[in-house]
């Protein structure tokens, strides 16, 4: 796997990048299968070694020995807020503004509904066509349920800011496009929203744990995010929701469960919302899922989100350079913006035979994924992806194309899900 | 702990009951702390030994080795339905009618909203004052969000059936009262609802895994339930939702996330609901939480819900008898119905000093809990509670009272949560 090309970059160059990488040692925090190049941390992050131990302790000691007393003794009841405060550090929020709860989709419902209640006279919910479908679907479900008195306006990705008008209750976008990795200018769109009296809601699914942002500095109104991508929280990990303190007094949302009550253990029959971010919680926290998130978040804080971003951009830049040098001739295009300030931590290639190519590449133990209609997607989770991995991934992809491995019959049938 | 009383029942009698118990061997399936008498399985079920191994496998092999391919290779994507089909067997539903998803509270939102949409001209949501607060709160949040065009009518527990009228969209009750253990006649109330054209929604939080019911036989319209009580799914385990096949074509609910879409991996921007129960799913399933539920549910199917119910009633009857013989003189009352057909699997005692008494009892390693204002609550999870445990619990409670242990200062301060 030390193939040389005529280009200036060689595997030796990549190895030198790795030796110079200030966060290279953190790769050892993760359990990674032998011989696999894992470029799908944007879909499911890798397992932090400490997570396995922590979850086993919950089973063996907390649930197994403490039983129901774990709620107090092991602070199960407080974990949603403990982890929320930690995530806050990664996204420029303050303690008490983030809580780990439910799923991204459910949290989208809460914050869009909350925005509707804060802008009762406005009827437009604005988003872009690059938003992740679940965000759009959740808004559609809400609007439908409310009797279609609102409309969802869907515009091109680069037309969001200028599409906000006086009827816009809220603009809701995912900062980083799940297919292409294109990154929105959150500050600009949030400012444009506020200029028209609208609210700005951000989905940070592909942001948290890979791109440094400052929610409070840009005065974002609400945000949601995902635990299982760059935060390495495990498959189907709980999500998070952000609401800034300036909204806490007036905000309301419709999913009013008992643990969002100001005094749940009174067991009264009238809902009274808790103060602060806790009103976004409805139910008992999912302890196994939440506990499994903690090590990944702690690690990320220690790695330094600035370090992670710097390396991530170097990785994606290297990948795009190698693709340009070695893969364009095989029919690939690059759908991800070349400007570093306009992309997240993934690179999307286009190819008409993308599905089969990705299957052939996975057979070579290089793991990325495919998205309709023609996107061959690679995520570069900086804490555990090496520069040499980037070289090897491209080399394998070259082999797949040159040897026409992707034409094998077993790679032709689409089978979801990855 | 072999104290004798003047009554006919002795510890030896209880030990004889244990020897004759046909499901006594199943206790060994659970990990139970040494020396603890655990009578709080109605709050958090005990840890099935197989669960610990199963979760460790997810960490070490599935997430750790298979990474994102676990969604297919380990059928993560299908677990919500696999477990739903298993739970269906415990509640008299058919395969394809139950799915494990979200939390009880979120599922309450879905089914009440669905019922509202199926009865658009009706404005009353009927419940009883014995319902668990979160069910009521979720309905309140929904009604409030919809601009209070609906009303929530709350009646006494024994007045539900006759309070249903032509304006009732749905009656929603928890079958078994979380405080007293009082059990609703689901067949009667469901029939009364249908007679008036209303729908019947059942919360099975304290039913699933301890009382045999027949959702389809009684033609229940929707149901929700909890994974962490008698199903032994772990702290904050995912919940489940039931919708019968006869409603699948017409039902809609507002939490329309991407995994409730008929073809999620098309990633289109228009929500089209999946066929069947899957439309009640919004998001990626929480794998650690779902996997942790499977052994407990498999075990329960093997134990036989009829066997579990028979033993549970014997345990609660024995407990009530011993309380009558030995504890009434210490100021205790019994809030749980004496008729077996009117109670679930718990017994609620009343005592004005209930909080302190329960703390003193817990110091003796007998674990129950307290609910406002004066309920001392004991749950009898038949698969792992022994008749001798019942004797010992009462004996310890007698000691707490006779020695006035509950008067110690450390037992006076209320501290939630248990």
Assign the CATH class of the largest domain in chain A: Alpha Beta
Give the oligomer, counting copies of the same chain as homo and different chains as hetero.
homodimer
Q: Uncertain regions of chain A: pLDDT < 50 for 5+ in a row?
A: 1-6
- Give the number of DSSP strands of chain A: 15
How would you sum up this structure, described in words?
2 copies of one chain form a homodimer. Chain A has 418 residues and is an alpha/beta fold. Chain A folds into 2 domains: 144 residues, Aspartate Aminotransferase, domain 1 (Alpha-Beta Complex), CATH 3.90.1150; 228 residues, Aspartate Aminotransferase, domain 2. Helix content of chain A is 37%, strand content 13%. Chain A has 13 helices and 15 strands. In chain A, the strands form 4 sheets. Chain A has a 7-stranded mixed β-sheet, sandwiched between helices. In chain A, strands 11-12-15-14 form a 4-stranded antiparallel β-sheet, with helices on one face. In chain A, strand 7, helix 8 and strand 8 form a beta-alpha-beta unit. The longest helix of chain A is centred in the last third of the chain and has 22 residues. At the A-B interface, helix 2, helix 3, helix 5, helix 6 and helix 10 of A face helix 2, helix 3, helix 5, helix 6 and helix 10 of B.
């Amino acid at each position: 796997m030390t193939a040389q090309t005529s280009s200036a970059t060689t595997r030796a160059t990549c190895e030198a990048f790795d030796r110079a990488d200030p966060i290279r040692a953190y790769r050892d925090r993760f359990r990674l299968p032998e011989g696999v190049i894992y470029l799908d941390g944007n879909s499911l992050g890798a397992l932090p070694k400490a997570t396995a131990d922590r979850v086993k302790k919950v089973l063996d000691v907390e649930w197994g020995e403490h039983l129901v007393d774990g709620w107090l003794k092991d602070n199960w009841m407080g974990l949603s807020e403990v982890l929320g405060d930690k995530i806050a550090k990664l996204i420029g929020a303050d303690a008490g503004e983030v809580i780990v709860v439910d799923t991204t989709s459910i949290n989208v419902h809460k914050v869009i509904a909350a925005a509707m209640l804060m802008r009762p006279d406005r009827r437009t919910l604005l988003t872009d066509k690059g938003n992740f479908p679940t965000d759009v679907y959740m808004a559609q479900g809400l609007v439908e349920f409310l009797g279609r008195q609102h409309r969802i306006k869907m515009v091109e990705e680069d037309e969001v800011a200028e599409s906000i008008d006086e009827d816009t209750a809220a603009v809701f976008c995912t900062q980083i496009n799940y297919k292409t990795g294109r990154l929105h200018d959150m500050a600009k769109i949030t400012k444009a929203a506020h200029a028209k009296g609208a609210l700005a809601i951000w989905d940070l699914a592909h942001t948290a744990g890979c791109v440094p942002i400052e929610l409070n500095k840009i005065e974002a109104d609400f945000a949601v995010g995902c635990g299982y991508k760059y935060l390495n929280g495990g498959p189907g990990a709980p999500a998070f929701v952000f609401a800034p303190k300036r909204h806490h007094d007036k905000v309301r949302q419709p999913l009013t469960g008992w643990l969002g009550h100001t005094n749940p253990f009174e067991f009264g029959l009238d809902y009274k919302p808790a103060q602060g971010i806790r009103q976004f919680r409805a139910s008992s926290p999912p302890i196994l899922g939440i506990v499994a998130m903690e090590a990944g978040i702690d690690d990320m804080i220690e790695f330094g989100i600035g370090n992670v971003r710097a390396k991530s951009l170097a990785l994606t830049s290297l990948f795009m350079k190698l693709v340009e040098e070695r893969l364009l001739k095989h029919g690939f295009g690059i759908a991800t913006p070349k400007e570093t300030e306009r992309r997240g931590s993934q690179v999307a290639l286009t190819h008409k035979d993308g599905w089969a190519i990705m299957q052939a590449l996975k057979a070579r133990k290089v793991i990325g994924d495919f998205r309709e209609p023609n996107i061959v997607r690679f995520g570069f989770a900086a804490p555990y992806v090496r520069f040499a991995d980037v070289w090897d991934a491209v080399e394998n992809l070259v082999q797949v194309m040159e040897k026409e491995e992707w034409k094998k019959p077993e790679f032709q049938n689409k089978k979801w899900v990855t």
